[in-house]
Amino acid sequence: MDNNKTTTKIQELTYELKVEEVMCTDVETVGPKMPVSQLRDVLYNKRISGVPVVNDNELVGIVSIEDFIKCLEQEEMNALVEDKMTKNIKTLYADEPLVHAIMKFEKYGFGRFPVISRKDKKLVGIITKSDIIKGILKKLESVYHDEEERRYRASHIFNDIIADEVFLKFQYFVEGKNFDKAGEASTGLKKTLYRLGLSPDIIRRAAISTYEAEINIVAYTDGGEITAYIDPHQIKIIITDKGPGIPDVEKALQPGFSTAPGWVRELGFGAGMGLPNIKKFTDKMTLRSTVEKGTHLEIIIKLSDYRIED
Amino acid sequence: MKLIEIKKILEAEVLTGEYNPETEIEIGCSSDLMSEILAFGKPGSILLTSLTNIQVINTANVSDIKVVCFVMGKIPDENIINLARKNDVIVFITKLTTFESCGRLYKNGLKSCSYFDLDK
Lengths: 310, 120
Fold this sequence. Notes:
heterodimer, A: 310 residues, CBS-domain, 13 helices, 10 strands, B: 6-stranded mixed β-sheet, 41% helix, 17% strand
């Protein structure tokens, strides 16, 4: 399971990372008129196995240690680089995702690819398989570091604060009748709970039930508030509005019962599932409503599996 | 089922840019009623819908649904795509009908979200 996760993360990184982020920019180059005999010093001194050939800033070929060995065997050390180099070269663009580079390495079996800029086709770097591995490891390290730091910042808060009782309060204001903004409060709360290091299942249950409640505020009222209180044992979310209130609370809780107007139904809600859904995903739900005064919905999700990490 | 296979089966186009074709999707669900998705959708699944508004993305986001595919050639507007990108939801579009999209995926072995509920 963990192994699968890592593989996926690395695959993700190969899409996120660009060739230019991992390539080597300090590129050794040689001119086309250089005799092959001088190539030895370049390859040996720099401990590289191939070098791009550049003429007037333009990439014209690539010459490798294999070319050098062939010349050595055939005693052609005085030949010019331009006669022995590979001319029909495969290159990568600096802004391509790393996965393209990996595919090209697999396809052609070369040891390196010159990297050129998409704009002016000039040589900007060179990439080898070891650059790719180094680049991915470096990125993984920084991803891991960020994750660690975020987890530390958030999930230790209950341990770091000294008090007999600690709770965190997050408040969100919800506009009535504005469907473009509906969902902002619950997706915001979801991100916040994630930062606190709660388990994905708990976060999902809290996010779905808050979202349903938020949709209700937007669909039926002129606005309201969502307040979440989090302590080491539970999440309590209180959703309030200032009316019009629910005339028959019992009926409103029945699956399928809805008083939603057409425009709410067109948006994919109002099927009489909101309150039953909230009930399904929470450990406790209390609904109080007074016509013309407003509705007060309180939900609790227990954090029995919430472990504060040491 | 790998996301790349789903894309092929649905003859779909991706609107959210680069995505990982190796992503494993096990479960599919389909509805134009977002409350149904909230009730029965499963984390990591694909949602097929012909409803195109911003709440589809919010529904996917709070339910941990990875991929939304808009069917019947419906093209979501820019706000929807931007919100999806912001929340790491992958958006596909296909010209196939809801029925055919679901049918093709089910025939190729993608499980239904209710399958797991019945199993419990």
